[in-house]
Every structure is written in C-alpha cells, then in structure tokens.
Amino acid sequence: MFRYFPTNYVWNLSVDLAIEMGARIGEIEEMCAPLHEAAKAPDAAGTQAFRETWVRMADKLCMLAEEDRVRGRLLSAGEKFARASSYLITAERLQAHDAPGRLALYRRQLDLFDAGVRLVGENCERVEIPYEGKHLAALYVRAEGVQGRAPILVQLNGLDSTKEMKYRVGLPGWLARRGVSSLVVDQPGTGEALRLHGMTARYDSEHWASRIVDWLWTRDDVDPKRIGCEGVSLGGYYCPRAVAMEPRFAAGVCWGANHDWRGVQKKRLQKEGDFPVPHYWAHVCWVWGAKDVHDFMRIAENVHLDGVVEKIRVPFLVTHGEKDTQIPLKWAQRTYDQLVNSPKRELKVFTDREGGAQHASFDNSINAGHYIADWVAETLGGRIAATAG
Questions:
Q1: What is the CA radius of gyration of the chain?
Q2: pTM of this structure
C-alpha cells in the first residue's frame, strides 16, 4: 500500500484510489505535498485542506484542457477532463455529507467525467434505469468483438464509491476486451441515487437489483441467460444477497467479501478496524437514512448473509485481500463456506505476491481485476485470449 501520509489511513486510501483511477504521480505530489500537517488535523479541518488542493489541481487541468480544445486537440482535452473528474471524485468523497458546496462539487465531476468520455470517444454510455418513479443512473460499456447478444456483468458500488470511480479503476474495460459487457450502477445509497434523488440504501438489495435485470431483459444486445453481478466492498454484501434472491442472475462475484457488516459496525463502535471515510458515523447514517447512530445500528442488524448465501445456485467467486484492515478475511471464508449450493464456488485471497492484498485491492487493482475478469469471461462465455490460439 502506498502510504503518502504516515498516520492517516483514510487519506492514503483516497490517494491510492485516485492512482487506481489514473492519477499521475507528479500531480499527486503537487496536491499532497502541502497537506502533511493537515493530515494530522481533525476531520473537518483536515478534509477542507485536502479539498482545496485537489480542487485546485482540477481547476488547472480544466484550464489546460480548454487551451487544448481551442486548438482542436480534443483527445488531449478529454484526458485532462477525465483526470480532473477523478480528482473531484476524490475530494468530494472525503467531505461531510452536509459540507457546503459538496453537491456542487459532485455535479461538476459528473460534467467533467462526461466531457472526458465524449472527447476521448470512450466505450462508455450513460443510461437511466426506471426505478420507483425516478431512475438509477448507470454506465453501459459494450463488449468488444461480439455480434448480437453479449454476456454482461452488473457492477455495484460499496459504501462510498461511485459508478465513475468503478469505471475508471478499469474492470469494465478489462471485461469488454474479453467479450463481456458491463453495467456499472449507482444503486440506492450511492452516487447519483443518494446525492441527487435521496434514495437511501436498503438491505434487501434484490428489490432494486431485480429492476435492473428487468431493464436488461429489454435490450437486444444483452443475453438474458448470461447476466452476472459483481459488488465491491459493501457491494460484497449487496451482490450475494441479490444473486441469492434474484434467480435470473447467472453468476456472482465479491470484490472484497462483506458477510456480516452488522458485526463490523459493532467492532467499529469499539474502535476496532479502519474506517473508509472521515465523519464515518454521520456518513453511514446519511447513506442508510438513519436518524442517529442508534437508529443506524438497528438498520444494520439486517445487513448480513447468514441464511442467505445458501440460496445461491449459480457459480460464485469470492475474493478478498489478505491484509484487509477494514473487513477481516474471516468473512470471506464464511461466505465461501456457506456457498454450499453453488455448482462452482471459489475463494481467491490476494496476497503481496500478486498485489491487491488491501481492502478491495485498492493498493493494486489490476492483477486482481484481471483475475476477476478472466473468471467472469470463463463463466459467462466470454474469452480470455486475443485469438483461439
């Protein structure tokens, strides 16, 4: 794990995620060099300083991108807009949910992400899935080299990730080259669903996952019998639950298991384990629509997979980082052990040897991501080599 700030796990997690999204090390240094003292400050003061330097870099990249655009250098402009978006994602993620200007920061990163995708001509389309009179926003990435209907992997956020973050880390592109499409969703409790529509998280993830499958069944470029589901971090709870309760899913993957999130919360109340974001208890209350921590802990009692995983009857891959300090490795073993009715179950623990040993492989996602992409391609009928030979 790259530890720019020796004493601040949460900030290091953010820097590492930015690198996984394509940050440049020189820009990381420029943004982080002024922050060594701020990294030791309490949440509110520290995160404001973090926000200022990262937004300043995004502003500079946008000015440079506009200079490129004036000269017709649209590919260069698009790359800069994309990085600016990722830096704003990183800054926004660390703010308290009610911090002044946070929503404007989020809306701006959406616009910059769209500009980057459009100018570069990326294989990425924003789509909207009808849900309870509103919609769930998602990113649709098409399988490459496939005529007609293709297999697809629905990809779910964790507690504090967004569809743009998951897209930039790279799994949709790795799958596309393997002949598998992707649908990266801001499900309730995350991304646009939470910030723009007030949709809070719910433990019965099949409620919204089934609506996603309904929508996919209407598309003539999706094979309805080859729809898989993947979830990262807290998505390692949402995904198994959805796959267990929605029989139209053909496979499932946890990128970081999360078998008993209620138990993790009880340990966190006792100051055990690392937090993913500052202002943690206020953040989870916001995500889950809880009045206070007591109300949140009541809601969290439902967020576990005991008695659920046994209902999964399709192939399932459980992955976990050996050195995960947020979610103990034992919960990956528990999920695997309870997959007794899966015809093809696998537990893959990522170590320092291949990288990805930290939480959800944020320390080095590419080898772990390729492992997942290969398993998905093998399971859903994609490809794992450029040619038959």
A1: 20
A2: 0.96
